[in-house]
């Protein structure tokens, strides 16, 4: 029973990662739409936010298999 509960936990963390990526890029698009000249400043920050959000989802996958 614990193995399936681990996978449910990973599924929830994957949903959280998807929502996080959506919020990061929604803020990026909103910022660039308001000030197009700030794109060069905002783009690396958006990619850093993407990487950190996806890293948390991958960490959830690792913990799901380790705790099993």
From TrEMBL:
<keyword id="KW-0375">Hydrogen ion transport</keyword>
<keyword id="KW-1003">Cell membrane</keyword>
<feature type="transmembrane region" description="Helical">
    <location>
        <begin position="12"/>
        <end position="33"/>
    </location>
</feature>
<protein>
    <recommendedName>
        <fullName>ATP synthase subunit c</fullName>
    </recommendedName>
</protein>
<dbReference type="Pfam" id="PF00137">
    <property type="entry name" value="ATP-synt_C"/>
</dbReference>
<feature type="transmembrane region" description="Helical">
    <location>
        <begin position="45"/>
        <end position="67"/>
    </location>
</feature>
<keyword id="KW-0812">Transmembrane</keyword>
<feature type="site" description="Reversibly protonated during proton transport">
    <location>
        <position position="54"/>
    </location>
</feature>
<keyword id="KW-0472">Membrane</keyword>
<comment type="similarity">
    <text>Belongs to the ATPase C chain family.</text>
</comment>
<keyword id="KW-0406">Ion transport</keyword>
<dbReference type="InterPro" id="IPR038662">
    <property type="entry name" value="ATP_synth_F0_csu_sf"/>
</dbReference>
<dbReference type="InterPro" id="IPR020537">
    <property type="entry name" value="ATP_synth_F0_csu_DDCD_BS"/>
</dbReference>
<comment type="function">
    <text>Key component of the F(0) channel; it plays a direct role in translocation across the membrane. A homomeric c-ring of between 10-14 subunits forms the central stalk rotor element with the F(1) delta and epsilon subunits.</text>
</comment>
<keyword id="KW-0138">CF(0)</keyword>
<keyword id="KW-0446">Lipid-binding</keyword>
<keyword id="KW-1133">Transmembrane helix</keyword>
<feature type="domain" description="V-ATPase proteolipid subunit C-like">
    <location>
        <begin position="8"/>
        <end position="67"/>
    </location>
</feature>
<comment type="function">
    <text>F(1)F(0) ATP synthase produces ATP from ADP in the presence of a proton or sodium gradient. F-type ATPases consist of two structural domains, F(1) containing the extramembraneous catalytic core and F(0) containing the membrane proton channel, linked together by a central stalk and a peripheral stalk. During catalysis, ATP synthesis in the catalytic domain of F(1) is coupled via a rotary mechanism of the central stalk subunits to proton translocation.</text>
</comment>
<dbReference type="InterPro" id="IPR000454">
    <property type="entry name" value="ATP_synth_F0_csu"/>
</dbReference>
<keyword id="KW-0813">Transport</keyword>
<dbReference type="InterPro" id="IPR002379">
    <property type="entry name" value="ATPase_proteolipid_c-like_dom"/>
</dbReference>
<keyword id="KW-0066">ATP synthesis</keyword>
<dbReference type="InterPro" id="IPR035921">
    <property type="entry name" value="F/V-ATP_Csub_sf"/>
</dbReference>
């Amino acid at each position: 029973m614990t193995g399936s509960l681990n996978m449910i936990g990973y599924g929830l963390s994957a949903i959280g990662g998807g929502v996080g990526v959506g919020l990061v890029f929604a803020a990026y698009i909103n910022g660039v739409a308001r000030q197009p000249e700030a794109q060069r400043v905002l783009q690396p920050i958006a990619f850093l936010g993407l990487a950190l959000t996806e890293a948390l989802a991958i960490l959830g996958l690792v913990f799901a298999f380790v705790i099993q």
